[in-house]
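Researcher: We're teaching a course module on how sequence relates to structure. For the next exercise, students receive a sequence and then see the predicted structure as C-alpha cells, so they can try to spot secondary structure elements on their own. Here is the exercise chain.
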Amino acid sequence: MRYKITDGIVEATIDSHGAELKSLKFIENNEEFMWNADPEFWGRTSPVLFPIVGGLKANKYSYCEKTYEMGQHGFARDNEFEITFHGKDKIIFLLESNEKTLKNYPFEFKFYMEYSLENGCLSIEYKVENLSHEEMYFSIGAHPAFSTPVDENVKISDYYLEFEKNETASILPLEGRNISRNTIKFLEDSKKIELSENLFKDDALIFKDLNSKKVSLKCKKNARVVTMDYSNFEYIAFWNKVGAEFVCLEPWNGIADFIDASGKLEEKDGILKLKDQEKYKASFKIKVKG
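Model: And here is the predicted structure for the students to work with:
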C-alpha cells in the first residue's frame, strides 16, 4: 500500500512493500523527480539495502560455522513493512525479524525507516535495534533513482553530477557482483562527472571516503537539481541501466564482497556491528529544485 506525506512544498509517496520511495514531486508544478520504474529497464525506484549491500560471493556467507544464502542487497526491499506512525509530513515503517528472515540471517532485530519532509527537504533515517544476545553484523544503504528526462532539446550528455568539493579519487570496480581490489583512477582535482550513454556500461561507479558530503544531479539545459547530503555514509555510488532515463545516487555503509573475501560475515569489508541491545542510526537528505 502506498502512503503520502507533504510539507506543502514537496509531496513524497512511499510504498509499504520494501518501505520504498516511489515519488517525489514539487506540488506547485507537479514535477516528478523519481524514476518511473519502467520494468523494461529496471522495475524499482528506491530499494532499501539491508542487511547487506551489494552481492555476496556465490550469494552465500558463513557465520559461526554455518552457511546462509542471501541475494543481492539483502531482503528488506522485498518485505512488507508495518506502519508505526503516519502524520502529515512524516511516516515511520518497521520491519522485524521473523521466522522467514532468521533462515537467511541469524539475528533478531527491529529495522525502522523514517521519512520526513521539512522546507522542501526529504530526510530518510535508518534505525536498527539489535534484539539478539550477541553482536549483530549488518550493512545498510539506499538506492534512489532520479529521473533524467530527455527530449529533442535535452540529451543525457546535458546531465552531470557535481560534488561540493574538488576530488582526486579512484573507483572500486565491480567484477560481476563482487569488487576488485584494483582501483581505477577516475577524478583528478575535479568535482564534475559528465553523464553519457556509456558511463555505466561496466556497472556502478563506487567511491569511498570522499572529501565531499554532498552531491548534486544537474542539467545544463534547465534548472532541475537534485542534491543529496550523505554525511553519515562511508561510500557513495552512482548507477544507471544503459538506455534508461535515470541515475541512482547511492549512499552506503557497507559494500559488496570483494573477489578475495573470506565469506565470513565478521570479516566482510565495510560491515557494521551492534552489541547486544545496542541501537544504530544513520540518515541522508534529498533536496529537489525545478
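Model: If you want an answer key for the exercise: The helical segments are 99-104. The chain is about 0% helix and 50% strand.
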